[in-house]
Amino acid sequence: MKLWNHRKTEDLGGGWLPGKPGRKFRAGGIIPKLTAAWADRRGKIPGLPGYITENISEELIRLEDLVKIYDTGALKVLGLKRINLTIHRGEFVAIMGQSGSGKSTLMNILGCLDRPSMGHYYLDGVDVAAMGPDELSLIRNRKIGFVFQSFNLISRTSALKNVELPMTYARKGKRFREQRARVLLERVGLGKRAEHMPNELSGGQRQRVAIARALANEPPLLLADEPTGNLDTAASVEIMELFSQLHKEGTTVVVVTHEEEIAAFTERIIRFRDGMVVSDQPNMPRKPRQEKTGSAGMPGQGNTAVPEGEEEPC
Amino acid sequence: MLIENMKMAFSAIRANKMRSFLTMLGIIIGIGSVISIVSIGDTMRNMFEGLYREIGVTQAYLAIGYWVDDVRQSDYFTLDEMERIKEIFGDEIAYIDSRPYVSADAVSGRTTIKFSFNGIDYNYQEVQPVNMVYGRYLNEGDILGRRKNVVMDTDSAMNLFGVENAVGRTFRTTLYGTTEEYTVVGIYRKKLSPFQAMMMGANTEGGEAFLPYTILTWPNDYFYAMRIYAKDEATMDEFYNRLKHYVAKSKGRAPEDFRLNSAKDEMGQMDSMMGGLAAAVGGIAAISLLVGGIGIMNIMLVSVTERTREIGIRKSLGARTRDVMVQFLTESAILSACGGIVGILLGGGLVMIGGSLLGVQAIVKPSVVVLAVGFSAMVGIFFGIYPASKAAKKDPIEALRYE
Predict the structure, then answer these.
(1) Of the candidates B247, B263, B279, which is a domain's last residue?
(2) How far is A215 from chain B (nearest CA, A)?
(3) Is B391 an 8 Å CB contact of chain A?
(4) What is the rounded CA–CA span in Å between residue B157 and residue B73?
(5) How many structural domains are present in chain B?
(6) Within this chain, do residues B245 and B393 fall inside the same structural domain, yes or no?
(7) Distance of alpha carbon A273 from alpha carbon A11, whole angstroms
(8) Distance (Å, rounded) from C-alpha B130 to C-alpha B190?
């Protein structure tokens, strides 16, 4: 804990007190409101928000004693049981587990969609466990790119506009947004389909639009939740190839999946069961996978997209 | 960002055209009825003001108050008193007479027609100009010499003599029990606005004529009221007040016992009455606007529920609570403002068309239009607050999971 000393979470946290979930404590009170308002104001300044310190650490994600309790009224369910985990910059990680293993819960917390009940989550050097909804929105906007199982493109909105959206929320100028969105679509091999509506695109194409959108604000973390769950094998391979490519270019990619074939693309596999990490080991990318996909008839589009992307300075 | 929000709002409105139109309809009807009622009120007020301008706003009648119980003969006026007032207040009076007005049968050959005779001084033409087409107006000699000369309008001449140019023709009539022969010396043409013409129609039965007031009011006659035109509209109130005090003093009465109603006062009363009426009816019409607003709220609630997933996606991409809130507020405000604009076009258009059909200058005030658009947008925002805050408060995880 050398560099993320900018804010002391202990000051805010009822999180350490037993039997008193931090979330409830943080939800009210004056301090979160003030910090949220403060972050809000600071967020408008071009560049990084004020509360983000220069972080030269190799660690992008660091979870410390992370606990998530689901309060269903009658009984409390422990979703995550004291998770300790570190993901370095530039890693390509798969988080695996059966449904109910806690991987989705972790995914939501990693994606700053949800907050842990206790513990710390340092993302890019900042403890986001104590942040309010609007601060989290800012973090999601700048630090995280989401890729969902069901693509989650906004319907009746062109691919281009979908890719522009995170930049819109980052208050980027219109011209910049459009230019960058085109570059990104080009990079995922959909340069000619920028004006298409999501329902005019195939599943694989939609997912590539979603990846372009996830990259819009150059987030340090790309978070994919079952990104190939709704895709056929060929499209799945394309998408995973794209992730591999992005990883090679330096993006940190975390893929949540329950498919071994998908996890095989990654370099590190973290397995979950019953809200706990049961194994965490490096993974050697296996050649046979690619052979198999080659026979399945991989469309050229995915391949041509990659060299194009390399040329673009992103 | 605002432009982005407006684009998003328009695309959402377009996506559900029928639904959006039906929602707008409430506002269209509300704003349309408010605009048309207020505009009809304004038009009427303008029309009445025009009518009063025509009879002269400086005109006033001075008489003993009808509320005075012990009216004596000395409370009435004589021509001597009128002359004295003329001398004292000559600079401020444009015209004064004894307001004699008599109704009698006029007989010309076999034709007998009911005529109204209006006794005037020779300079009545200055305060109530008429457009002489044949002959001449009454002159000072007619008045002083009590000549039995009359001036009438073309319709009356037509009814009595069967011709418009009746200059030199004579008729008989009985005024105050004396039957005499009267000569027509001048004919004028009535100038009626299309609305007046429609309301009154052509005068095909009776007739009316001006004749010297000295025929109807003799020096020893007591008359009930004086008709006065002040010279200056700006100082008329003060002048009339002074005049009232003078007359009351000369009659040995309190000023409150005399009635001095100017046309301007009457116009003001009429105006405020009409304004009040229009405001009251407009207020009732505004209730329909409220109903329209509730319609917007209802459809926005549906929209928010339908688009839960979209809200979740937006939040996951970094939309803050406020961004979502503003997005939906913009949508409801635009929905409402569009309805407002259509309502204005509809309401204003109807009033304009109706006005031109009636030949009346229809008045749709820009201030009312601006107010209506602003108000409809306010309705949209007000009734959009609840749905928008509902959208903004959605939990992103729940929203993303929504099917």
Answers:
(1) B263
(2) 11
(3) no
(4) 38
(5) 2
(6) no
(7) 33
(8) 7
> Which tokens sit at B391?
């959208």
- What ipTM does the predicted assembly reach? 0.74
Same domain, B242 and B345: no
In this complex, do A140 and B321 lie within 8 Å of one another by their Cβ atoms?
no
CA dist B398 and B403 (Å) reads: 10
Which of B4, B323, B397 is the closest to A113 by Cβ? B397
Q: Is B370 exposed, middle or buried (0-12, 13-18, 19+ CB in 10 A)?
A: exposed
Q: Which of A114, A134, A141 sits opposite B317 (nearest CB)?
A: A141
Element (H, E) at B384: helix B366-392
Q: Is A95 helix (H, G, I), strand (E, B) or coil?
A: strand
Domain match, B251 and B294 both = no
Q: Which domain holds residue B296?
A: 2-51+269-401
Chunked into runs of 10 residues, chain A (314 residues) has average pLDDT values of: 41 37 42 46 42 57 91 84 90 90 89 91 88 90 92 92 93 92 93 93 94 93 92 92 90 91 92 91 64 41 38 40
B226 and B375 fall within a common domain: no
Domain limit, last residue, from B229, B263, B297: B263
- Partners of A137 on chain B (C-beta within 8 Å) are 315, 318-321, 323
What tokens were used for B121?
């001084």
The answer for A274, left when phi > 0, alpha when psi is -120 to 50, beta otherwise, is left
Q: Summarize pLDDT for B90-128 with one digit per residue, the tens.
A: 888 888 888 888 888 888 888 888 888 988 998 888 888
For residue B318 the two structure tokens come to 């970094």
Domain A9-311 = CATH 2.120.10.30? no
Tens of pLDDT, residues B343-367: 999 999 999 998 888 877 888 888 8
Stretch 115-144 of chain A: residues touching chain B, C-beta under 8 Å: 133-134, 137-138, 140-142
Q: B316 touching A, CB under 8 A?
A: yes
